[in-house]
Structures are given as C-alpha cells and as structure tokens.
C-alpha cells in the first residue's frame, strides 16, 4: 500500500474548523490507515484505487465531506484557452499513442509543494500508471515552453539536457546511463522510434515515459505549470490527468485547457459522469432503511453530487473518481458518508446446517491416535528447500516443482515428502531431552498437469533404544485404531534408510509408504547422537475415506 | 533438614558406609548385596539430597608385559650380562650367549659405568648389588597393582622399556557420606517415602498449538451453520486472480508478491463460458487486452478466496454458508511478522437478503467466541469486494488496535460473469495472527520452528 506523509497543521488549514484529534479519529473512516505519528507529522497508508489521497489536498477534500464541513462534488473550473495546443503526429501510434494535458496558473509553489507533487507523480506512476506502462505524467514550468507543441517521434541519437543533468545526452545515453532510463527503458525496447514532445522552437520538453527536459524543471520560482500525460490508452491518460487537475485546483491553481489534436487524439474534457442507483439496492445491501434525503446527504458527504429522480437517485461523479465502476461502488459511498461506525452489526439466524469436512474429521482422529501413541505434532512449511528435501536426506530429486524468484532461500520448492522436515526438526532440537517423537500430517505435491496434491502422515522417533520394531508397532497401532487397517512390511531399499532395516508399507498388497531405521550417515550429517526410526505413508489413496 | 524418609536401598547404602566410610560402587554391591542398578540409583538419590559425596578418580593398574615376565624368570638383560661377565669376557662369547638382548644390556651397562670395554674384552667395573627396576619387577610379579604402590623412581625405568609393563587407566568412584549423613539415625526414620522430593518431568504428547487454534475456529464456524470446503494450494491465476477481478497488470500479481510455479501452465482452467465472461468483465472495466496465457500460469494460492469462488461458480447456490481453511503463500521476506506460508480462513454467506450488517454480525459473533469483545470496523479496499471493511481488534497486551479479518460483499463484476446471482458476503484472514494473540507471541515464526522446548511447555488451555 502506498504511504503519504502529511502534517496535521497543514491538514487543519485545508479542512477548516477541526481539531487534530478529530482528524486522527476520522482518517480510518475514509479508509486511511495511520501508519505512524510523530508530533505534527503523520504517515498515512491509502489504497491504490484512491490516488487522490496521495496529497493532503485530496485527503482534506474527503475529510471536509466526512465531517460535514464542505459536501458535494468538487467541480473542476477549466478556462477555455486558445493559447496552448499540442498536435500529434501519426508515427506515435505504434509507440505511445496518446497525449493529454492541462495548464495550471498562478499557484504558489513552495518546497513542500514540489515534494508533494513529486510524491504524487511517483504514486500515480506506480499505481494506476502500472509503473509508467499505462500512463505517465510530466509536470513542467509553463513559462519555459514556447507553444504550440508537437508530440512526435525521433531516433535514439536525438539529444537534449535531461532533468537533473547539466549536459546534453542522447536518448541512447539516457537509456543506458540514467537511473530512470535503466528502470523504464524496457517500455520502449521494441521500437526504433522514440516518443518526444517538442516545443515551437524544436526544444525538447519531455521524453515520455522516461524523463523531462532540464529546462522546464519546476522550482520555487515557478508560477505556472504545464502538465502532460502520455499513455497507451486515452481514457487511462485522462483519468490520471483528472487526478492531477483536481489536486492542482485544490492547491489554488487556475486551470486552462490545452487543445490536443491529430492521430485520434483530442482535447480532454475531464467531465463528470452520471450514474443511477436505486435506494432499495442501497438499503438491502447495507441492511438499513434510509430515506432518499439521507442517502443523498450521505453521498454528498462522500464528495459526490446526488439528486432524486423518481424512485431512483442520480449521482454525479467527478472525473477523478474513476474508481467508481457501478452501483455497488455508490452503495459503498453511501456507507462511508453515513459512517461505518453507525452501522450496528446484526446476527441473522442460519438457514443452513454446518458440517466439518470429512477429511478434516478423519485427520483429526488420526492426530489424536498419534498423540495417544506419545507423538508430538509438528508443523513444517510445504514450501521448502533442496537442502532439506534432498541433500540432507540423500533422496533423489526427480521432478521438482519450484517457484520463481523466491525472496527466501529456505522456501524455493514444494515438498514431495514430510519426513525430511521432521529430520530437520530433530537436528534443531539435539540439546532437548530424549526420547523425541514427532509426527506431521500435511499436503505433499507431485508434478504433472494438473499437479497432484495428496495428504501424507509421517512419524519419527529418536532415542537411544529406537529400533524398527518400535516404529512398526506404532504405525500398525495407528492404522488399526484409526482406520481398522492391517499393514504388512516388505524389505526394500531407500536412500534415507539404513540398508536391511527398511521396508515398504503395504495395505491390501498395495505400497503406501516406507518405514525403517534412518541411515546412520544421515543421522551423523544432522549431528543427531541417537538412533532414529521413522515412517511416511500416503493417506489419500487407500486410507482416507472421502464422502 | 529434610524429613528423614529413606528408601530401603538408601538405608542399606548409608549403613554400609557408616561401617566402611569410603567405598567404590563395587564394594557397596558386595557389602549391601544390592544390584549394580540399585546401587547406582541409591547413590543418585543420596547425592541429590546432599547426603553422599561421589569422588571420581583415575588410577593406573600395572601388570607385567611379555619382556617383563621373561625378566622376572631369567633376570633383567643387564643382570644376565653382569652375571655372565663373572665367567666370560670376550665380546663374541657374550653375544652368542645372550642373543638379541645383548645390545640393549651392554648399552645400559656402559652408560651406568658398570663395565669397561678394551678391544674385544669386557670387564666388570663396580656394579650395584640391586639393579634399578629389579625391586619393582619382583613387587609386581604375577599380580596387578596400582601404580601408587610402587617406588616411582625404581619403576619409571621399566615403564619406558618396550613391553616390560602394561599400564591400564581405570576410573574409580569413591562414595562417602557427607557430614549431614553421618548424623542420621536410621532407626528413628519411618518406613514412608520422601513425598516432598522432586520427580522427573514427563513431556505430554499433544497437538500443535496452531492446530488447536485452527480446530477451534473450524468448530466455531460449523456451529454457526457453515460447511467446510477443500481446495488445492496450487491454483491457476484464473481462479486466484482473474475470477476475482484482479487485472492482469495489477501489482499484486507480480513475481515479487506471488509465487509462480516455474514453467507450469494449467491446461484446463475453467469452462469456455466462464473464461469468456470473466475476460469480458476485465476488458470492459479495466480497459486492457486480457491474455488467457496469463490466466493459465499456476501459482501458489495467495488466499483461500480462490477455493470459495470456484465452489460458488460450480454450485451457484441461492442460499449457502461455506468456509475454507488452509495454507496460503506470499513471496515475502520472512520476519517476525511475515511468513511465506501461513493459514487462512475464508468464509462466505450467500442469500438474497444477505447484507453488510449481517456480515459484521457474523464477525462480531466469531470474535466473541474466541474471547475478543473489543472490536471495530473500518472501511478498506479489496479489488473483489464492495463495500469492503476490515476488523480492528484491541490487543490488551500491546495496548493497541490490530487489524484482523478483511471482509466485503463480492463485486457484481466478480459474481455476474460466473452466474452467481445472489449477494455473497465474504470475509477472511490469517489464523496465525489470532493464534499469536492467544499464545501471547510476538514472533510468528515460532509456530513453524518446531522448537521442542516451546512445544513441550506452552500451555494447552489459554
């Protein structure tokens, strides 16, 4: 979840008459989690579907509604201007087909604003921009740019001075030497033509989605901004622009249009949407009995506009609330405006009879049988390592099911056997008193399409007198008591067990597992100083009864 | 002073040691007629009560080796040389008579200045009456002696010579009574046993603490009218993500969060109708090119919701309460609060009148039954539910609110494509978190460490 750092005092200024405590108490009811607090500073986690909460302006907007200080939708005021335009050439279609933009004038930019804009931009890039793939933003100093602009393509030799640099670099150099170039260059890897925004004097403004030109860098001396968004989908680009426009207007800027034309591009409207929702769906879903005016006031508290129309309610949704897909999203907006804390939980009598899964029941009684035999239940991960599964136990690794890019070396492959984990457990407990007797039931995996998942039982006993007879008696009793099954054992060889002290376990002449004394070399590898005996059987095929 | 209650074994040992204050266990066996095991136990008990001292010492036991035995019979080689010199004096005669021992005997005699050699003629000088080693040789004879009994100056020479003596190192225990024990009057002690003494610890075999919590949760949901369903841990991305309206380019689907199975794609993922409708829902709402190959990629399930949704898509019930319980996986760095593999419970209620307050009610009832009464609900976001809430419960020990189950109503974008027509209330969360509250743990890894010290000591009833 993305995190934004804010100060209570600036929130107070933006929201209006409100105490610090009121803010802290209300944040969770906007769906925002306080991650940490340090005096005036507060770090807030917001969900990626609400990028408007990436700045204090957006949070203040929501908070005003929730507290009833200012309700209803925020209307974007965009002055139509003929001064600013971008024309798009056809060759961008194959690289990054869409551009959109807006101008924001006469704002006050202090250091904090720049920091916030940068953070918002990064969050938008990561979240709805899908790491700049879907859409990306450039924010520029308007007064350093000569309109009209052109959005076109160039080759990799094209040179300009990129942001945070003092010398000219070619596009190839940017992609190879700068951090952003290395991080996002792969988005352009398939094309020879590079997207570029040039101004009227052929100066580079931006090389989307990688980097802006240094000349348009926003500083505390900047008064007026030009925002451009490029992307592979027009609607996504405009969604992103709507968030930035909303935040900039809230921050005190006056918005003006940028005319966009050419190659299926057009001037963004950033228009509100209308959506109808029925009060009965709202009441039925929330378990409430709200009248129409209460529903309307709740929606307004969620910073939407709403009006009754016949039996239904028509909702007006500002452009930046593109997280609202349909009626159900409006139901949630009503719930938030009404206040989750005001919803009283109720219990409705069950219309159904509950039932434990028969497999769970059988496993539970098997567990109790093993405990009756003096075995302690262990639990190990199904995702384990080659070392534990194969190397330490001398087993052959035939067909391994492994996961990609695990962050932990101890968790890279799915287990096909439980016993190696139990041996590993014994090795971690050599300083504890003996006898040590452990068992585990759990899922094991074997490759194939589909992958087979079955349940195994393994038991292990370690003490100075441990021997084959003991472990066979245990398995025999467990299966006799648990399932009324008789076992037979037949000599076999297994790399984990001592030669001549190892047998297949048979039920009705079918091999279901292996039993024996653990190979002394393996015991030595694990630095265990007493004999160890063990068994492992598959429960799924012949033992567990499924209903 | 301890209450004076002694076992018969202890009494016999004390009595014997009073007569003969220092004895080895073997001596005690003889004097008390007890078995070696009884003696061993009796000494252990007395030692624990601080009534007996056990001194362990090492001693070396000496007997004659092959050359020693020959010398005992014929005299030491140098003695034989000196005796022979009384009758013969040429080198060749001496060599012939003494054979292989001549060399060492001659060397020793010359070194000690007992003889003088001029050319081939050897003459006696002034040998002592008793040669070094002769005294010890006789003393050892055919017996075995402790080296303490020998004159060490005389004996040390023999020890160095090859195969003259055999030295065995023997550990011995000497048992004696402590001062406290010496004053014990056995006649006045009763025939009872020491009921106040410490006894050995027995470790109870038991179910794993986490399994206890899982069973408890399972039982609560069954009694609330829910039935348990099972599903695989390996799932296609289709059921783990696509069916749950998580777009294919969503960050949660990346390798760094989800475990993908190396090179494994599911052949059959769902019915053609399910695939078509789910992909349409993605294309229309998320505006991107949905790719069936992405949906085929097999993952380790990141939640048990995939089991629930698959079940609902198959059964399309008008009325149902089901839950699934099992392991889920996240590609995380393992730490005190994160595991790569943990257990999750996931439950759903399907019904035409099912609503958000009911969902909150079931949560409240569940928490009440596991002993948590201080709870509240906060809004949150999940891609597949709307509205979505999370439960916060108050942790008395940490003095703060902690997040537990997430919940919500399945979005129409999830249910409609799969032909589910009634509202579905869903919730779920990690079981380890609840178990941590229950067992007062701060490190979630403890559940999978299989540390016997913890497993054997953690209290079963919390």
Q: What does this molecule look like?
A:
The complex is a heterodimer of chains A (547) and B (462). Chain A is an alpha+beta fold and 547 residues long. Chain A folds into four domains: 3-66, Phenylalanyl-tRNA Synthetase, Chain B, domain 1 (2-Layer Sandwich); 78-266, Phenylalanyl-trna Synthetase, Chain B, domain 3 (Phenylalanyl-tRNA Synthetase, Chain B, domain 3, 3-Layer(bba) Sandwich); 274-339, 2-Layer Sandwich (Phenylalanyl-tRNA Synthetase, Chain B, domain 1); 358-538, Bira Bifunctional Protein, Domain 2 (BirA Bifunctional Protein, domain 2, 2-Layer Sandwich). Helices cover 28% and strands 27% of the residues of chain A. Chain A has 15 helices and 29 strands. The radius of gyration of chain A is 33 Å and the shape is elongated. Helices cover 38% and strands 23% of the residues of chain B. The model of chain B has no long low-confidence stretch (mean pLDDT 88). In chain B, a hairpin with a 2-residue loop joins β2 (115-118) and β3 (121-124). In chain B, the strands form four sheets. Chain B has a seven-stranded mixed sheet with strand order 6-10-11-15-14-13-12, with helices on both faces. A three-stranded antiparallel sheet of chain B has the order 4-1-5. At the A-B interface, α8, α10, α11, β21 and β24 of A face α11, β6, β8, β10 and α16 of B.
Q: Assembly state here?
A: heterodimer
Largest sheet: spatial strand order of chain A: 13-12-11-8-5-16-17
- Tell me the structural class of chain A: alpha+beta
Structural class of chain B: alpha+beta
**Major β-sheet annotation of chain A:** 7 strands, mixed
Question: How many DSSP E strands of chain A?
Answer: 29
CATH class of the largest domain in chain B: Alpha Beta
CATH superfamily of the largest domain in chain A: Phenylalanyl-trna Synthetase, Chain B, domain 3
Q: How many helix segments of chain B?
A: 20
- Examine the secondary-structure arrangement and name the CATH architecture of the largest domain in chain B: 2-Layer Sandwich
Total tally of structural domains of chain A? 4
Distance between the termini of chain B: 39 Å
Strand content of chain B: 15-25%
- Please tell me what the overall shape of chain A is: elongated
Low-confidence stretches of chain B: none
Give the number of domains of chain B: 3
Query: What is the CATH topology descriptor of the largest domain in chain A?
Result: Phenylalanyl-tRNA Synthetase, Chain B, domain 3
Percent of residues in helices of chain B comes to 25-40%
Instruction: Write out the strand line-up for the largest beta sheet of chain B, numbering strands in chain order.
Output: 6-10-11-15-14-13-12
């Amino acid at each position: 979840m993305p995190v934004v750092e804010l100060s209570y005092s600036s929130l107070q200024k933006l929201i209006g008459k409100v105490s610090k405590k009121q803010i802290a108490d209300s944040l969770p009811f906007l769906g925002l989690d306080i991650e940490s607090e340090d005096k005036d500073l507060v770090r807030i986690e917001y969900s990626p579907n609400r990028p408007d909460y990436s700045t204090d302006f957006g949070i203040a907007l929501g908070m005003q509604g929730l507290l009833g200080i200012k309700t209803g939708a925020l209307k974007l005021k965009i002055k139509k201007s003929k001064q600013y335009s971008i024309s798009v050439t056809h060759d961008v279609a194959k690289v990054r087909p869409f551009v959109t933009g807006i101008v924001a004038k006469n704002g006050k930019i202090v250091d904090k604003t720049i920091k916030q804009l940068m953070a918002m931009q990064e969050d938008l890039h990561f979240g709805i921009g899908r790491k700049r793939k879907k859409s990306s933003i450039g924010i520029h100093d308007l007064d350093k740019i000569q309109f009209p602009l052109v959005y076109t393509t160039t080759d990799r030799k094209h040179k300009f001075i990129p942001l945070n640099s003092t010398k000219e670099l070619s596009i190839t150099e940017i992609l190879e030497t700068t951090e952003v170039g290395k991080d996002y260059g792969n988005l352009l890897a398939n094309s020879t033509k590079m997207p570029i925004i040039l101004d009227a004097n052929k100066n580079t403004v931006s090389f989307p989605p990688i980097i802006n030109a240094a000349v348009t860098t926003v500083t505390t001396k900047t008064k007026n901004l030009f925002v451009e968004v490029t992307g592979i989908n027009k609607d996504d680009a405009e969604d992103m622009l709507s968030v930035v426009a909303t935040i900039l207007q809230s921050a005190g800027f006056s918005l003006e249009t940028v005319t966009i034309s050419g190659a299926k591009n057009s001037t963004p409207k950033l228009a509100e949407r209308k959506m109808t929702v029925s009060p009965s769906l709202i009441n039925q879903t929330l378990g409430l009995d709200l009248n129409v005016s209460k529903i309307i006031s709740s929606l307004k508290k969620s910073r939407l506009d709403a009006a009754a129309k016949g039996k239904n309610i028509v909702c007006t949704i500002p452009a930046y609330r593109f997280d609202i897909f349909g009626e159900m999203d409006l139901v949630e907006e009503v719930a938030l405006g009404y206040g989750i804390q005001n919803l009283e939980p109720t219990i409705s009598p069950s219309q159904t009879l509950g039932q434990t899964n028969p497999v769970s029941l059988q496993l539970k009684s098997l567990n109790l049988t093993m405990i009756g035999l003096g075995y302690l239940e262990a639990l190990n991960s199904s995702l384990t390592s080659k070392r534990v599964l194969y190397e330490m136990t001398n087993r052959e690794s035939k067909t391994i099911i492994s996961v990609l890019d695990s962050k932990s070396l101890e968790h890279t492959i799915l287990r096909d056997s439980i016993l190696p984990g139990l041996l590993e457990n014994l090795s971690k407990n050599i300083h504890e008193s003996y006898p040590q007797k452990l068992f585990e039931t759990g899922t094991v995996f074997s490759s194939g399409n589909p992958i087979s998942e079955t349940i195994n039982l393994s038991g292990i006993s370690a003490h100075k007198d441990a021997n084959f007879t003991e472990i066979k008696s245990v398995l025999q009793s467990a299966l006799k008591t648990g399932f009324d099954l008789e076992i037979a054992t037949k000599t076999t060889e297994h790399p984990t067990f001592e030669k001549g002290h190892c047998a297949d376990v048979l039920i009705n002449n079918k091999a279901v597992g292996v039993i024996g004394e653990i190979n002394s070399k393996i015991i030595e590898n694990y630095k265990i100083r007493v004999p160890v005996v063990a068994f492992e059987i598959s429960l799924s095929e012949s033992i567990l009864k499924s209903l | 002073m301890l209450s004076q209650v002694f076992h018969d074994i202890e009494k016999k040992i004390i009595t014997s040691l009073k007569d003969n204050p220092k004895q080895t266990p073997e001596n005690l066996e003889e004097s008390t007629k007890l078995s070696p095991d009884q003696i061993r136990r009796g000494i252990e008990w007395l030692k624990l009560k601080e009534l007996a001292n056990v001194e362990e010492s090492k001693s070396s036991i000496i007997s004659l080796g092959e050359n020693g035995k020959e010398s005992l019979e014929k005299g030491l080689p140098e003695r034989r040389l000196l005796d022979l010199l009384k009758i013969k004096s040429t080198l060749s005669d001496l060599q012939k008579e003494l054979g292989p021992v001549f060399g060492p005997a001659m060397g020793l005699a010359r070194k000690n200045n007992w003889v003088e050699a001029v050319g081939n003629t050897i003459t006696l000088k002034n040998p002592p009456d008793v040669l070094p080693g002769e005294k010890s040789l006789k003393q050892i004879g055919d017996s075995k002696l402790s080296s303490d009994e020998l004159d060490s100056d005389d004996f040390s020479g023999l020890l160095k010579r090859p195969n003259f003596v055999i030295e065995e190192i023997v550990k011995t225990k000497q048992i004696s009574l402590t001062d406290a024990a010496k004053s014990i009057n056995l006649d006045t002690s009763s025939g009872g046993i020491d009921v106040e003494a410490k006894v050995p610890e027995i470790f109870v075999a038991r179910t794993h603490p986490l399994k206890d919590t899982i069973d408890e949760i399972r039982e609560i949901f069954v009694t609330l009218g829910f039935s348990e369903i099972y599903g695989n841990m390996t799932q296609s991305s289709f059921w783990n993500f696509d069916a749950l309206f998580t777009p294919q380019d969503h960050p949660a689907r990346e390798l760094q969060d989800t475990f993908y199975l190396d090179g494994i794609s599911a052949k059959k993922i769902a019915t053609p109708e399910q695939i078509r409708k789910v992909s349409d829902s993605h294309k229309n709402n998320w505006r991107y090119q949905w790719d069936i190959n992405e949906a085929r990629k097999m993952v380790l399930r990141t939640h048990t919701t995939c089991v629930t949704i698959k079940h609902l898509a198959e059964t399309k019930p008008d009325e149902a309460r089901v839950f699934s319980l099992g392991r889920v996986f996240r590609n995380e760095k393992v730490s005190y609060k994160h595991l790569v593999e943990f257990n999750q419970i996931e439950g759903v209620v399907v019904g035409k009148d099912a609503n958000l307050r009911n969902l909150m009610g079931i949560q409240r009832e569940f928490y009440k039954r596991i002993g948590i009464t201080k709870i509240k609900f906060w809004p949150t976001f999940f891609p597949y539910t709307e509205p979505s809430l999370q439960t916060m419960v108050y942790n008395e020990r940490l003095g703060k609110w902690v997040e537990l189950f997430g919940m919500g109503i399945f979005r129409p974008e999830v249910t409609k494509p799969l032909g589910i027509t009634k509202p579905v209330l869903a919730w779920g969360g990690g079981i380890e978190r609840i178990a941590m509250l229950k067992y007062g743990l701060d490190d979630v890894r403890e559940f999978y460490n299989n540390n016997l010290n913890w497993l054997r000591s953690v209290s079963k009833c919390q």
